[in-house]
Structures are given as structure tokens and as C-alpha cells.
Amino acid sequence: MSIDLLENIQDAPYDLLLLADPSRDHINEYLRRGQCYVAANKHEVIGVFVLLRTRPGTMEIMNVAVRDKYQGQGIGKKLVLCAIGKAIEQQAVTIEIGTGNSSLSQLGLYQKCGFRITGVDRDFFIRHYDEEIVENGIPCRDMIRLSLDAGSFHPIPS
Predict the structure, then answer these.
(1) Which residues, at least 6 apart from 93, have a Cβ–Cβ distance to it below 8 Å?
(2) Over the stretch 18-37, which tens digit does the pLDDT of each residue have?
(3) Would you call 42 helix, strand, or coil by DSSP?
């Protein structure tokens, strides 16, 4: 599997991006401002993430997604670890990531990769999305914010 920067955002894999974020408008906004990386197995795009500089010294990992048939194989973790590495290469001191309160496996994954919960943006998904999002039978209302200090990055082994 290779993970490479997508040079032309017009080629962004929307089918994957929409798995992690149901708003095409939101996706277009952070694609325009960020860097989209795609994971490919031979010639098939199987995963994606977007890195976005949010302020000096800080980058946020947005929209980590893996094609359904490849989920559960450790690819999401490889994407997150790659994103952390790319952020550190670009002198990020703090790396942030957010996910819904109902995204239970993502919360676990991010913590295994070294992120710590730093806050809750209450009602984020109610304020920013027109349609209700439900995962694992739980209404997605709040954004759980996590961050990682690049200087002390040590992922927890699986």
C-alpha cells in the first residue's frame, strides 16, 4: 500500500470522503485549504485523509476514511500514523483530530495512536449538519476533540 499526496483536488475520492463526512460543502472547504492524501493498493484507492494547518504550529487531521471492504485490517491506523508523520515533517507542534461522540471505534483508534481527549464541542453536529447522523445506534451530536503533542509522540502498540 502506498500513501501519496493528491496533486489535483479535482481527483479527490468523494465516495470515501463522504463515508467520514456527509457534507460535500464541508469536504470542499477543507480540501481547498488542506492536503489530501490517498492510500492505494495497486491501482485502487482504499483510504484517504486530509491534513489542514489550522494555526501556526498546529495541524488537524480531517476525514480519515477506509473503503468498507478494507476496514478492520489496520489501514485506518496506518493512515492516522502517516498523517501524524506528515504533520511532524511540516513542523507541527500540536496535531488535532475530532470525531463524533457516536464514533466509538474511531475514538479508540485515535487514543491508540497517542491522541488524548482535550474537549467536547457540544452540539457541533446539530449546528453544522442539516441531517441527523446516527452511528452505532447513537445520535451524533457532539464533536470529541483530541490532540497530540508531536514532541512526545509514542503510539500505544496494538
Answers:
(1) 57, 58, 149, 150, 151
(2) 988 888 999 999 999 999 99
(3) coil
Task: Compute CA distances 148 → 75, 86, 102, 113, 154, whole Å.
Answer: 20, 14, 21, 9, 10
pLDDT band at residue 157 under the 50/70/90 scheme:
low
pTM: 0.90
CB atoms within 10 A of CB 110: 25
Give me the helices (H) in the chain, please. Answer: 14-20, 24-33, 75-89, 104-112, 124-128
Q: Can you give the pLDDT at residue 120?
A: 97
At 8 the three-state DSSP class reads coil
